Amino acid sequence: MVSTDSISTLRADIASRPFVAKLHDWVTTVDHKRLGILYIVYALVFLLIGGIEATIMRIQLIRPHNNFVSPSVFNQMFTMHGTTMIFFVAMPILFGFANYLIPLMIGARDMAFPRLNALSFWLTAFGGILLYFSFLGANGLYGAGSAPDVGWFAYAPLTSQTFSRGHSTDFWILALLVSGFGSIGTAINIVATIACMRCPGMTLGKMPLLGWLNLVMAVLVILAVSPLSAAQIMLLVDRYLGGHFFDTQAGGSAVIWMHFFWIFGHPEVYVLVIPAFAFASEIIPVFSRKAIFGYPVMVAATVCIAFIGMSVWAHHMFTVGMNSNANTFFVLSTMAIAVPTGIKIFNWLATMWGGKIHFKTPMLFAIAFLFQFLVAGLTGIMLSAAPFDWQLGNSYFVVAHFHYVIVGGILFTTFGAFYYWFPKMSGKMYNETLGKLHFWLFLIGFHLTFDFMHIPGLLGMPRRIYTYEPGRGWDTFNLIVTIGVFFQGAGILVFVANLLWSYFHGETAGSDPWDAWTLEWSTSSPPPTYNFATIPEVRSRRPLWDRKHPEDPDWKYE
Amino acid sequence: MSTPPTVISDAHLTWEHPSRGRVGMLCLISAESAIFTIFVVAYLFYIGRSLTGPAPKDVLHVPVFFTVCLLSSSLTIHFAVKSLKNTKVGAFALWWFLTLTLGTFFLAGTAREWRHLIYDEGLTIQTNLFGTTYYSLVGLHAFHVTVGLVAITTVLLFALLGYVRQEHAERVDVLALYWHFVDAVWVVVFTVVYVIGR
Amino acid sequence: MQNRGPSNWKMRFAVQLIVLLYLPVAALAGPADRSISPTNIFAPVSTPAHSILGLSLFVLAVTAAIFVIVFSLLVYCVARFGKRADDDGREPPQVYGSTQVELAWTVIPILIVVVLFMATARVIASIQKAARPANAIQVIAIGHQFWWEYRYPGLKVVTANELHVPVSDPAHPTPTFITLLSADTDHSFWVPRLAGKTDLIPNHPNTMWIDPQQTGLYLGQCAQYCGTQHAKMLLRVYVQSREEFNRWIEEQSQVAHANPPVSEGQRIFKATACINCHGVTGTVADGSFGPDLTHLMSRETIASGAAPNTPENLRLWIQNPDAIKPGSKMPAMGLSDQELDAVTAYLATLR
Predict the structure, then answer these.
(1) Which of A208, A265, C4, C36 has the fewest Cβ atoms nearer than 10 Å?
(2) Whole-structure pTM over 0.90, yes or no?
């Protein structure tokens, strides 16, 4: 075991190297831990940018007929906000945590393909920079173009050369093609790592749930991001080679773009939420002091969600005019997915039941996730009833629903993950008071914004409108929604301040500050480059529980 | 701090895993299959829907010879890998070269077909839905063949310079897996374009 | 972790939270009170919207019941199983799973899904498979960036932006069947009190139907992002008594009258590019890129609801459309002040 002495000597050595040398180390790294941190920091920067875009939109919508930004700027804002948050915040943050944690949790020294890992990160990173270059560069020589303004799902034929002159749409296509290849690379890495590099004794049935859930997520990325890449190549063929894939004037179909996009788009939301489930599945047991309830069922439910999730995509297209048989089928498959999802909520609840819950910041976020994901799932069931969706689809009810999942579900568990693994990654404890302040500020802001956002949808307010008419009953609710944004912003500022302050001045965290049970807590904080002095050997799902409770080890009961 | 186990048990010795290269390549093949599936779906959906221009049955000739070339190259690459596993480096290089030749024939055949379609029949990617979907699907496949041939050429160069030995058999097998995938895709593309679509 | 305040603070907080969350729902508790909003989906006046409301209330009831049960369990769990201040530091009993419990919370949700699915399938069929009666009014709606074109093929009427339909008596229904087409990109027709939304997609005709049972003006707007001025592609549906509707049809099918005092305005209208885009029946103007203007003055708004139809707004619109709807497809015509006055005077005669 590497002692803290040698680590601090190592740190001092590292600290004394010139800045350029340290920068070079980071830029050329293939170490999964460093790449993980690069992904996470990159995503945090884009979280702030995406948040600013959201704030601009909400200020514009604070009252009817407002003039804060022009229609054209607003349309760029909602396109960039959605594209940024999905592709350059949510996916990188989740890939970052996966990269950091998977080798540590399975007792490996790195991912299966370290150089592919680095390539994947840099592809994603450059994709994001390319997207944002559109603000400057899309004007080109003739002043045509801007940041993309076609919505994050870029429906045809709005994206054809006829309706999208200039290069704004091309920036959308190319940035996502490039980062899509990065995502596929990471997914290949995750599958190969989990399939081939688990430590002795760790059968698939003894792997932490985070491993299983990221494996399922990676398979979904491989199967779902590829259709998006295919559709984008087709769009490029239309725009630049005179093709007719989505050219309705030549007999092409606008609806087929929707099918191709949502065949990606729906599994994509499972790509985002399944790693969030993974965080909850690691945090809730540790802070309830109990093993996860129903491990095999949790695995089976996740695999079911992934399977069924590949068959529900056209519930985004209920209003498009599919025949009643098609609509009915997609209602059934969408409602069916509620069953395994509900099972997972009940299992987390059963994990907490009879435990001893420690209300530290990670657990606060995990508990809020449970409440909020429940609500999000229920509004999803409402939307799955196609006729109800004929009213609510493309309205602010849908916007409220998916933000409830992505912010209330995914972002909350991700915050929990930050606080839970920050001591491991940095070697320092975060400030618990600031953590709780972040939680409460963000919770209040989240509910002000997204609870009340459902109502304008029920009262007929469509999405993607830069302004709205007075006298439709939407005014007050939009005001409240906008106010909530500032609480969320304050919460995020507290969060960033906490991270920075704690990194430099936090108390030293030991290797296992939470008294947890998975392998990452058996090595130092932060771990050495090689992760483990000797590759561990495990006999159960909670190897550290076995070490700490030799009279009552898990492998007797599993 | 927790103490590491001091005894390395049998688990370390009997712990077996699939090879990383194989798993990685299978994942890549899955991703590529998904991409091809979308292009195939588009092709099938648009059959018979072109508003103008030449129709498949008017201009397409079934490329039997070049298909046989490509599918045979799967056989030759299989023999190549088998030879290398049996340390027959010379035989490996021969079969490998044969694979490269057959693959190049296939590409040349595609080029010839396209030249005929463009100059003699006036069918381009812009002409109609058939043109768009045909050139995209066959072109995507030809692109993957090209990438494969570049990789095969690189390995052939290494082999001729004497750098390829029996211990590289598994890596070469991974590349062969990619090549088999390219051939399998051609079976699907051939069926969709020259059988169903005509 | 120390408890702060009385030991039941968590329960009280939880109750307050539940009440707070139900407040917005309660705010809608006047669902039939249409004064909350003219576009309230809970205030239907037409059969499709009614069917949807019925299904919605059922789904809401089921999801509310699930919410109350699971939410209460969560609140109880959090309140009851917190680590106490006097904790002895021992781990609680480790429970790894329970097959019976897993079965229970698998089977019950499956049953709920089956019930919800069947209720939904019925409503889908009742709306999508409704037969078109012989006396139905036929309208073709064509979506444009950023306005609505309406044609009544049987009645030889072409108009824009304001749809008129006859009221339907539930005993003897006279529904209106709308064929939805698009001239450019995707749009969506959404008037919440009349029906759910249906998209207008080029090269993909759709059909919807409404049978409003109360006269009045019903509002909505385009619900599929279609470009810069998607937000101002507003919908106005006038449901009229049979007599009023017939009278409206009669007026709309007249050609425009030539009117000597405004012939200067009419000359400018013909000479400048107006007739390239706009049509006026009975004259040489037969453009179809923009709204038909034959009976422009019979409409209450211009620019698809973006502004009231007054001479001032009309003049401003022709002078500088971006002042009212920046990004609309109407270009500024570059007319002088006198030309503007003349054309506006001419348009004012197109009743």
Answers:
(1) C4
(2) yes
